[in-house]
Amino acid sequence: MGITDTFDDKTEEILKPSCIAEKTDGFPETVIAMFSRKTLDILLKIGEAEIISTMDASDVTPVYRMNYKGKPVAFFLSTIGGPATVGFLEEVIVKGGGKILLFGSCGSLDNGITDGHIVVPTFAYRDEGTSYHYAPADAGDFIEVKTAGRLTEVFSELGIPIISGKTWTTDGLYRETRKNMELRKEAGCITVEMECASVMAMANFRNVEAYQFLYTEDNLDCGEWEPRLLGRMPDNLREKIAYIALEVAVRI
Asked: Structure pTM?
C-alpha cells in the first residue's frame, strides 16, 4: 500500500488534535498563518499584539491576537511545508479558529509573471503526502481551492491586481526537476509552493474555510533558476504584503 492508498474515513483517529490542543477563550475565528519571520515582526509592530496561546513543535510557537480595524485576528509563524503547517492548523481549529488565511512566497512557472505579484491559487496539484490523509486519491490529482472565488472578490474590492491559476504543491524543494516543471506547466500550473494542496485538503475534511494567496519570488521558467526577489525582498514590499493580509483577514 502506497501513500495514495492511505485515506481512511472509516476508522477512528488515534492521536486527535484535541489530545494536544484545547479550546481557548477569546481565540479569534480568523487566523493568519505566514512563513516569514520578517513579516511576523512587521505585524507585531502594526498593532498591540498579545500572546493568546502557544503550540509546541521543535520550538514553542506563539499565537498572537490583535485587533485590526475593530476585528480580532490571530496570527502565527508557521513552519514551511504541508505536514507542519497542517499540524499547526489542526491545533488552531481546536483552539477556536474557523477561517484560515495563509500567505507566503512561491516560485513562478511563468517567466512573464513579475516579481512580487500576488497570485490566488484555484487548484493545487498533489505532489505531496499530507493531502492523501485527508482526501482519497480518486478525488483527483488536484485539490480545489473552494475559497478562491471569494478571495478574488476581496482583492477586487481592495483594488489590488492579482493573477489566479493552478499551483504545484511539492514536498521536494530540491527535486523540482525540469521534466516535472514542464509537466506541471502543461497541466496549467503557474506557481510552485509547499502547502496549498495539504492545507486545502485538510480544510475540506474539517469543514473550515481556508484562504491562500501567494507572492512570486523566484522563477523556474528559464534556462537557469533565477532567484529574483528570493532573500532580497525590499522592506516596503514586505510591509505592503503584510498590510494586504490584514485587509483580507477582516473581509473574509
From this structure: 0.96
